[in-house]
Structure prediction request, 331 residues.
Amino acid sequence: MIETIYFEEEVFDHPTSLHVRKALPRADWFPIRSYQELFNKRHQNFRLQKKQPELILAKKNSNFVLPIPAGFGMDTSRNFYFSHMYNCLYDCKYCFLQGMYNSANFVLFVNYDDFFHSISVIKNENHDASATFFSGYDCDSLAFDKISGFADHALDFFYQHPDINLELRTKSVAVGALFKREAISNCIIAFSLSPHEISKVLDFKAPSVARRLNALKNLARHGWKIGLRFDPLIYFKGWEDQYSTLIANIMLDLFDENIHSVSFGPLRFPKKMYKKIVSHYPNDQFYAFPLEEKNGTVSYGSHLEIEMRCFLERELAKYVSEEKIFQCVLH
Ligand code: SF4
Prediction:
């Protein structure tokens, strides 16, 4: 677990920092001036840090809520994201965070209320449009929850604002905060999923797909609206059978009414990010697969993407109503 915590001095006594202190009583604490001086340092070794990441507690001062990047969200009139954390406990081989940041250390922004204040401002500015606010773009929304206590705060806020939606996106089974309360109708618990055969190789440190399915079905029984996210779709030998089996297993005792939405999207990386990620895996089979570059994006190419999209649409249509199925951008 985490042995070293760096903290900006002004957040030392913040309630979130106290929560972290309780969760990690044995960690050593070191003061710093600002998180950027550690986190943004050049020439850090992401893969080496990933073996034993350190935690940085910081205060975010601006850009609390941003418009969602193209291809991430669902078909709602307004989509935004907010990141109370950078980096993730898990270590998926395709994770774009390893191409985005120099450091694998975790940054936790302790001032959750400032994020919620910004969300209120956006809500008030856009009172005619229903908006969805995505957590889980720069981290996994729930994986760190035992340490951060974030979910409870977010759910308290969105419970009081039923006209806007929250998506918690996760591969985690740390869903205790959700079972402690009644389900909130404007909160979607969205699980990222891929077939077991591929997940066991690529989703390093993440809970198995079986455990994720168990968690999501229990949450559905508890009344939570579930999102299913097949993003990225991974191509491998036998992918059709494996995705078909996965979808059938998910839907075995899950019903259309439990599902808020299903989305899927191809494996894709911005070119610069892809180059950086590949440099972390010089001899890896996963990155040996020939990808194509078009308009600054690296992907399987349109032929394979269309084949996978059509297959997914056919399989999902067996179980889920059409208006709940969304496709993330194709290139
Ligand atoms: S769960 Fe998501 S954020 Fe975490 S390592 Fe995997 S892809 Fe990255």
The two ends are 39 Å apart (CA to CA).
